[in-house]
Amino acid sequence: MKIDKPELLEGYRIMRTIRDFEERVHKEFMTGQIPGFVHLYAGEEASASAICQQLGDQDTVSSTHRGHGHAIAKGCDVKGMMKEIFGRGEGLCGGKGGSMHIADLDVGMLGANGIVGAGSPIACGAALSAKTLKTGGLSVTFIGDGAFNQGTTSESMNLARVYDLPVLFVLEDNGYAESTSSSWSIGGHNPVRRAEGFGIEGTRVDGHDYFAVYRAAEEAIKAIRSGTGPRFIHIEFTRYYGHFEGDASSYKPLDEVKDERRYLDALKFFRARTTGGKMLKTEDLDAIDKEVEALIDASVVEARAAPVPDLSTLTTDVYLSY
Amino acid sequence: MPVKSFREALNEAMRDEMRRDPTVIMLGEDIAGGMGAGGEQDAWGGVLGATKGLMPEFGRERVLDTPITESAFIGAAAGAALTGLRPVAQMMFVDFFGVCGDQIMNQMAKFRYMFGGKAKTPCVVRTLYGAGIGAASQHSQCLYPMITHIPGLKVVIPSSPYEAKGLMTQAIRDDDPVIFFEHNTMFDDKEEVPDEPYTIPFGVARTVREGKDVTIVAFGMMVGHAKTAADQMAKDGIECTVLDPRTTSPLDEDAIIASVKKTGRLIVVDEASPRCGMASDISAIVAEHAFEALKAPIKRVMPPHSPVPFASNLEKAYIPSVDGIKAAISAVMGQS
Ligand SMILES: Cc1ncc(C[n+]2csc(CCOP(=O)(O)OP(=O)(O)O)c2C)c(N)n1
Ligand SMILES: [Mg+2]
To answer: Which residues of A touch B134 (CB under 8 A)?
Structure first.
């Protein structure tokens, strides 16, 4: 089926929001106002966008340390996210979590995660809830190429299979885990076959191609909703920035990074394809760009001005009651 | 004597032991860096750079970058230690103990005892700990009390570059499994460190400062805070002894008890979560063995019973401070 115009515009809006958000966090980090570890998702936008826009309120996402894109795509409030990253009391998690722990259960975002490989078991649990409570929901777990080698990931794939859980396992292969190449770390070099080893059908797509990701997710989600259990997608793309802010990416060969923003850019591909094929008008996309720019600007202005958390919150929410 | 950073001191100890003993190997995520990649090799040298330069000198056969599989490679360190190697494995942050706990607490800790004394498990697990870098709840914990709780493991918490080098050398030469804690914020601390290899024995406390009025026991990062607080209080005429036990297992109980018998007052400063922590443990030991010597209730200076928060102001309020220690000193001296 053709992806209709509102859906395309929505996909573009999410991708643009993620890109601008990350570019801006990169800049703000350099001014020294953002504490801790920040891992940027720029370059990987098509994955979160094309997948999460096909999810509903009943569906959940478990994310990674590189979670801003997943959070935005699943519907987290952008201003609340920016405040959280700045460590403000009005942040999405009250300033207690920061970049690595952004979550909003109201929109089905089960959290970015500081522990590599922790997301898949959580997604299995959410899928178990959906199945038991018959909500019709499914859960998506985003897995880095590094996380793909954790025992928790393999154990979760097996668990999802034996329980026929509605889980979509999405391997986000950006080529590196910190400085380690995924072409080395993933033994057997064939993630789809690894999934198939667990009896889970999988496919591999180019993550700079929004349409390819959309199609693969559409097919997988349809199958999962029909009750046939888990699916797997292996998405390949590049991350533009270092592993975290401050990493110079010197382990990447120069010819790999030199022209990546020119040739490996999901937003550029999207524009060329949709406007060239007359699916969308350039003005429509330009208008989205403007709106997103204003939103990100406002989010930073508000985050900077927002108060830090009240000291009394240091010991709240450890328990509901104690 | 040359001045070196905590990072350099650790690096030197590991390098010298690798030169001395060909069975010493290193395992960990990005401890060299660039594995399988087409760009710079040895690009990281570990997350804070402590293993930089080891791979170029000793090769990838002895300095092994690993996939992200803590259970597998830390378990492999245990298995290799059982069979002839002396692995130094790097469990990046101690928070990841949650991922590979079995291999540490049920395997390497227990081989020797369970096998009736027939096994040796000479391995070191290096790990980062501690708050102060804005890394929030899953990258800031001080799980040494939890690990000290497990019989069979030796637990080391160096408090300065000099200490780090001597204790690391001892850890690598030691025939038992050693969990070696390196504070996230201390890697750029500097002091004089000899070029030659030397060892610091486990279970022997260091007297950082001597004073007749109060005994302060502190660990790792908190040793510096305790010394600062004690130096400042000395201006008001209160003289504190600061003891750095260096290792929580074995623990130099005798030194602590002897000091409290002299001063009659005890403060324990511990960055770890308060419940079932080292501060409680040491308080119990002193209450049991030096009760009659106590002139004031024991004071524990600790963070609140909460995860480590992200926001900078909350994190600062979380970490035990010099002011908090000074207040405790005043309190045990009956001045508050
Ligand atoms: C259990 C655990 N081990 C190691 C780390 C340190 N670490 C954080 S991100 C990362 C690399 C993750 O790589 P990948 O899964 O490919 O995700 P990417 O960063 O490429 O998005 C590592 C090793 C961690 N946070 N948790
Ligand atoms: Mg990766």
So the answer is: 35-37, 87, 98
Place of tokens 């492999």: B76
CB A66 within 8 A of CB A55: no
Which of A115, A141, A92, A125 is closest to A299 using CA atoms?
Answer: A92
Q: What is the number of the ligand closest to the CA of A241? A: 1
pLDDT value of residue B336? 67
Superfamily of domain A5-315: Thiamin diphosphate (ThDP)-binding fold, Pyr/PP domains (3.40.50.970)
Q: What is the pLDDT of residues B211-256, one digit of tens each?
A: 999 999 999 999 999 999 999 999 999 999 999 999 999 999 999 9
Rounded to an integer, what distance in angstroms lies between the CA atom of residue B95 and that of residue B108?
18
Do residues B159 and B221 lie in contact, with contact meaning Cβ atoms separated by under 8 Å?
Answer: yes
Q: What is the C-alpha separation between B247 and B219, in angstroms, rounded?
A: 9
Domains of chain B plus CATH, in order, are 3-192 (3.40.50.970), 206-332 (3.40.50.920)
Beta partners for residue A205, in sequence order: A235
Query: Which residues from chain A sit within 8 angstroms of residue B30, using beta carbons?
Result: 178-180
CA distance A37 to A250: 19
Confidence of residue B121 (pLDDT cuts 50, 70, 90): very high
Q: Residue B71: name the closest of A119, A115, A184, A181 by CA.
A: A115
Cα separations in angstroms, B300 against A285, B7, B222, B266, B332:
61, 30, 12, 8, 11
Distance CA A131, CA A188 (A): 33
Distance (Å) from CA A159 to ligand 1 centroid: 23
ipTM: 0.96
- pTM for this structure? 0.98
Question: Which residues are within 5 Å of ligand 2 (an ion), measured at CB?
Answer: A 144-145, 174, 177
What is the 8-class DSSP label of residue A104?
B
**Residue B325 CA from chain centroid, whole number:** 20
